[in-house]
Amino acid sequence: MVHGQFPQLRLRRLRSSPILRDLVRETDLHPSRFILPLFVRPGQGVRQEIRSMPGQFQLSPDTLIEEIGQAADLGIRAFILFGIPASKDAIGSSAWEDHGIIQESLRRCRSNFGNSVLLITDECFCEYTDHGHCGVLQERRGTWDVDNDATLENLVRQCVSHAQAGADMVAPSGMMDGMVRAIRRGLDDAGFSHIPIMSYAAKYASAFYGPFRDAAESPPQFGDRSSYQMDPANQDEAIREVALDLDEGADLVMVKPALAYLDIIRRVKDEFRVPVAAYNVSGEYAMVRAAAAAGWIDERRITLEILTSIRRAGADMILTYHARQAAQWLR
Ligand code: PBG
Predict the structure, then answer these.
(1) Which of 48, 65, 94, 246 registers the highest number of CB atoms within 10 A of its CB?
(2) Exactly one of 33, 203, 289, 324 is catalytic; which is it?
(3) Nearest CA to ligand 1 atom 16
(4) What is the pLDDT along the chain (331 residues), one digit of tens a residue?
(5) Model pTM score
(6) Separation CA 314–CA 27 (nearest Å)
(7) Residue 204: CB within 6 Å of ligand 1?
(8) Residue 126 beta carbon below 6 angstroms from any ligand 1 atom
């Protein structure tokens, strides 16, 4: 692969000026590749900073509008919404109520912004169930676990309800088997065949989600998510998950988390050549913010380096809490 030899070949020649370095740069970073996650709860004038995620807030529908407007001014045009409902129950029924928190937020955003922003909705039940698991529970031989197929029916209700309220794209994150096929059928039957599905296809059971559970008030009340999310040790299994979701009709596939899983992003991109999203999750964000606050790292350089590395690994788009700041730095 190397053409030529030192001393006639000197790779430093193309690094000798900023203009040259810009010309030969292989990976671009632009706010059009960012998706900003936002947390919304009922109320008015709410702007509650999340303790473990400095710079991120729980918002109410009115402050959500302000937040999206400001981010849009920085060039961020895609958003994923997480809801913290007024009430929780065993099955998460507030997830598909017509006047649920996400449904109300979507209507307000739609009437405010029209089609100038892309609104994605996270489709899962951990924020809506009183036990904090990602679906309906069933007991088998003395242990409780998520009932896959019963959860699928509710997932379809949730997605259709979000589509009716104005979602541009749905993003199922519960790692249920068959979720993409069920949602595709449900959306098509309800007249939403034009709405794409971004599947959290390879989502690992990760400690990097810690701060998110504060933000979304969604920690499991017992046990963990290892019976539905993937084992961090597995790579071939991610390929199987992605293949299945694409067969079931996923338009975009996601790898999550991002930074400790760059190898998975690269393999998914190489094997399937489809649009890939990576989720730069809450724990990754919190670590950078904490080290920066302590004065131990250069926050701007670290953040842009991390986001560039995720793009370089093969991600077309990045869900990231750094989106606003990064967009400002990239101006
Ligand atoms: C589940 C969901 C989670 C995240 C996104 N969707 C949490 C979980 O699986 O426990 C994590 C995102 C992050 O950590 O930033 N609805």
Answers:
(1) 94
(2) 203
(3) 124
(4) 778 999 999 999 999 999 999 999 999 999 999 999 999 999 999 999 999 999 999 999 999 999 999 999 999 999 999 999 999 999 999 999 999 999 999 999 999 999 999 999 999 999 999 999 999 999 988 899 999 999 999 999 999 999 999 999 999 999 999 999 999 999 999 999 999 999 999 999 999 999 999 899 999 999 999 999 999 999 999 999 999 999 999 999 999 999 999 999 999 999 999 999 999 999 999 999 999 999 999 999 999 999 999 999 999 999 999 999 999 999 9
(5) 0.97
(6) 10
(7) no
(8) yes
Strand pairing report for 57-59 and 47-49 = antiparallel
Ligand 1: residue of 212, 221, 287, 320 to mutate (most ligand atoms within 8 A of CB) is 212
- Alpha helix (H) residue ranges in the chain: 18-24, 61-73, 101-113, 148-165, 179-189, 210-215, 236-248, 262-272, 282-293, 299-313, 323-329
Is 269 a catalytic site residue? no
From the CB of residue 270, how many other CB atoms can be counted at a distance below 10 Å?
Answer: 9
In the chain the domains, ranked by start, together with CATH numbers, are 29-329 (3.20.20.70)
Query: Can you tell me which atom of ligand 1 is nearest the CA of 124?
Result: 16
Q: Which two tokens stand for residue 182?
A: 């069920």
Distance 212 CA to ligand 1 centre (A): 6
Measured from the Cα of 283, ligand 1's closest atom is: 14
Name the closest-CA residue to atom 11, ligand 1.
209
Atom of ligand 1 nearest to the CA of 125: 16
29's tokens: 């970073």
